[in-house]
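The records we work with from here on pair a chain with its fold. A complete example follows; check for yourself that the lines match position by position.
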Amino acid sequence: MSGASGIAADQLRSVVERIERLEEEKKAISDDIKDVYGEAKSNGYDTKTLRSIVRIRKQDDNERQEQEALLDLYLHALGMAPDIQS
């Protein structure tokens, strides 16, 4: 190709190749994360709970508190909240 279309094709190829490399890196990281969860499971940890903890730690404090308040509200509305006894 020549002219502008050749430059655009080179740029497009470069973008696609960068995306492909990043996808490969993402898969490698995903595999590493699966390995860590597998290791945790073999040490007796519940992976579902670990995933919840990781998700919660990503949230900022206000977002987390809001979600906890909504969960508490919904549980009470459904009669599923634990009774608090003193």
Q: What stands out?
A: The chain is about 80% helix and 0% strand. The first helix runs from residue 3 to 42. The chain has a mean pLDDT of 92. Helices lie at 3-42, 47-58, 61-77.
